[in-house]
Amino acid sequence: xxxxxxxxxxxxxxxxxxxxxxxxxxxxxxxxxxxxxxxxxxxxxxxxxxxxxxxxxxxxxxxxxxxxxxxxxxxxxxxxxxxxxxxxxxxxxxxxxxxxxxxxxxxxxxxxxxxxxxxxxxxxxxxxxxxxxxxxxxxxxxxxxxxxxxxxxxxxxxxxxxxxxxxxxxxxxxxxxxxxxxxxxxxxxxxxxxxxxxxxxxxxxxxxxxxxxxxxxxxxxxxxxxxxxxxx
Length: 232
Ligand code: URA
Ligand code: SF4
Fold this sequence. Notes:
By secondary structure, this protein is an alpha/beta fold. The chain contains eleven helices and six strands.
């Protein structure tokens, strides 16, 4: 009986029932030590491949493709968002939809451009269905990738866009309003928190606050010690 059903499913281009059932039961898992250690040793190509085939959390089921990040691999600035939306999922690049256009304008406001000393990533690499906020377990499962990206990039400054990004990086509860205007620390890299562009599209009155945060980021960046002077 079940064989016959599997035959029908196959004709419809579907997997046998046992496979469909198994596919429904991937629970988000905290990254185990081995997985984290393997990711922590990856180079960019390995990271890209690993993310593309990753099934470590539930979000793998509904994505079209994982979106690792985009930009200059020698970036001074790292901007971290929440997770890909529908357009990003289609295109494979972060922040290419409406929120992305606002992010580009925010970058331009402080003299930055996507891809020029700037890298853009997300807390989770796969699109949460219906653009819901990623679950803590999904953020935890994806964190080793974000951590490896930061390690490989070695940015001078990180800007966390919104609460999930800030929480993913700082590994603790964050309230944006309380955190704004302060300098947090991500493993020795200064980190500034501001509102997510999608939030600003819904709450345009808060754009003025985001502008303050961007000015704070720019001033902080300018005040950072430049690297050690080249030996003569
Ligand atoms: N929102 C995000 O947080 N990231 C994207 O890449 C797009 C929208
Ligand atoms: Fe893997 Fe991250 Fe995608 Fe989850 S969101 S499947 S952890 S790449």
